[in-house]
C-alpha cells in the first residue's frame, strides 16, 4: 500500500543513505561506567534493535563538568574510543546507521555528581532545578575551550565509526541555555540579540566541521520552545537557526528549557507542531530533513506525519523501550491494513 512505502522509503542524509524513516532517538540509559565508558549492559541495550533506519546513541558528555547524570555515556577523551567502536559496530551490524549525540549539560550539571564547578552562559540555572548551587559564567576563553571540546568529541565519534553526529542544543542543556533569552543575559557577541545568542551554535558547527569535513552527516537537536512567557518561541528558533542550515544535514526539533516537561503531557506526536512552525517560516529549499520524536506510539501516526510532510524522519523512543521489535511490528501492521 502507498502508506507503507512512506515509512519504508530510504532517505539520504548528506552522503548517508538510511534504509527507512524510523529512528531510535537518544534516550538516556545510564548504563555506562562511573567514568562514562561503554559496558556490556549498554551494548545489550542497543543489541538487536534491528529495523531502524538510524539509531542515535544517547547524549554523551564532551566534558566531565557537563555530565548530566551518574553513569552517563562519555565521549570526552581517547580512553572511551575502544568501547565506542564496539558500540558503533554493533549497531551497524544490526542493519542500522549509527549516530551519536554530543552533549554538555551546562548549568544542569550537578557539581555533587561531576565533582566540578557547573557553568553556563550567564551563571543562570534553567527552570526546574531545585538543588542550591550557583553556576559560573563562561568567559570568552572558556567558550573557545568549549569549542575545542566539541571538536575533540567529534574526532572521537568519527574514529569510532559512527555515521552521524548530533549536536544537543535542547532540553535545557548548555547550548539551549545560550539560545534562550531566559538563561542568556550576556552583553558580548554571544548574548543580547537573537543572532548573537545563536552564534555559539554556528561556532560549534564550524569547530566540528573542521574535524569531520563537509561530507559527514551532522544533525542538530534544537530546543525550539521554552514554554515560558519570555522564553524562546518556535518562530524565533527558526529565525535563529536559519543562517546555519547550509551546514546542517538533519534538524531534530524538540523542547527547550523545560525539556519534555510540558510537552510530555500531550497526546501522540506532541512535538509535531514544531515542524509546522519551521516549515511555515523557512522555505522548503533551505530546510534540511526534519526529525520529529515525541510520544509517537503507532505506525499509523508515524505514516500520517510522513504523508502530511510534517517531517522526513520519525523518532520512536519509549515505544521501542517497551518493545525492541517495534519497527518490524509496526511495518507488519501497515502491510496488513
UniProtKB/TrEMBL annotation:
It holds the Pfam family Oxidored_FMN. Keywords: Flavoprotein, Oxidoreductase. InterPro entries: Aldolase_TIM (IPR013785), NADH_flavin_oxidoreductase (IPR051799), OxRdtase_FMN_N (IPR001155). It comes from Halonatronomonas betaini. Residues 7-337 form the NADH:flavin oxidoreductase/NADH oxidase N-terminal domain. PANTHER family: BINDING OXIDOREDUCTASE, PUTATIVE (AFU_ORTHOLOGUE AFUA_2G08260)-RELATED. One of its GO terms (molecular function) is oxidoreductase activity. This is NADH:flavin oxidoreductase. Coiled coil: none annotated.
Amino acid at each position: 500500500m502507498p502508506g507503507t512505502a512512506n515509512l519504508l522509503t530510504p532517505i539520504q542524509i548528506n552522503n548517508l543513505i538510511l534504509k527507512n524513516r524510523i529512528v531510535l532517538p537518544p534516550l538516556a540509559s545510564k548504563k555506562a561506567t562511573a567514568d562514562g565508558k561503554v559496558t556490556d549492559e549498554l551494548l545489550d541495550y542497543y543489541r538487536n534493535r534491528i529495523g531502524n533506519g538510524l539509531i542515535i546513541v544517547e547524549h554523551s558528555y564532551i566534558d566531565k563538568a557537563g555530565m548530566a547524570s551518574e553513569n552517563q555515556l562519555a565521549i570526552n577523551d581517547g580512553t572511551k574510543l575502544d568501547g565506542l567502536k564496539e558500540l558503533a559496530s554493533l549497531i551497524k551490524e544490526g542493519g542500522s546507521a549509527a549516530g551519536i549525540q554530543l552533549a554538555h549539560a551546562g548549568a544542569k550539571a550537578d557539581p555533587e555528581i561531576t565533582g566540578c564547578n557547573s557553568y553556563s552562559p550567564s551563571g543562570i540555572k534553567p527552570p526546574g532545578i531545585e538543588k542550591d548551587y550557583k553556576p559560573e559564567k563562561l568567559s570568552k576563553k572558556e567558550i573557545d575551550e568549549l569549542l575545542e571540546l566539541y571538536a575533540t568529541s567529534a574526532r572521537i565519534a568519527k574514529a569510532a565509526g559512527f555515521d552521524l553526529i548530533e549536536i544537543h542544543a535542547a532540553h535545557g542543556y548548555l547550548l539551549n541555555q545560550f539560545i534562550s533569552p531566559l538563561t542568556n543575559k550576556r552583553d558580548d557577541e554571544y548574548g543580547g540579540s537573537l543572532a548573537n545568542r545563536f552564534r555559539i551554535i554556528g561556532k560549534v558547527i564550524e569547530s566540528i566541521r573542521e574535524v569531520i569535513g563537509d561530507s559527514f552527516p551532522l544533525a542538530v537537536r534544537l530546543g525550539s520552545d521554552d514554554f515560558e512567557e519570555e522564553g524562546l518561541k518556535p518562530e524565533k528558533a527558526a529565525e535563529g537557526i536559519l543562517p546555519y542550515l547550509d551546514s546542517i544535514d538533519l534538524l531534530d526539533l524538540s523542547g527547550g528549557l523545560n525539556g519534555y516537561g510540558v510537552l510530555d503531557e500531550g497526546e501522540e506526536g506532541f512535538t509535531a507542531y514544531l515542524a509546522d512552525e519551521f516549515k511555515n517560516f523557512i522555505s522548503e529549499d533551505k530546510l534540511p530533513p526534519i526529525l520529529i520524536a515525541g510520544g509517537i506510539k503507532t505506525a499509523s501516526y508515524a505514516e500520517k506525519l510522513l504523508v502530511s510532510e510534517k517531517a522526513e524522519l520519525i523518532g520512536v523512543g519509549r515505544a521501542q523501550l517497551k518493545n525492541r521489535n517495534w519497527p518490524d511490528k509496526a511495518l507488519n501492521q501497515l502491510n496488513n491494513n
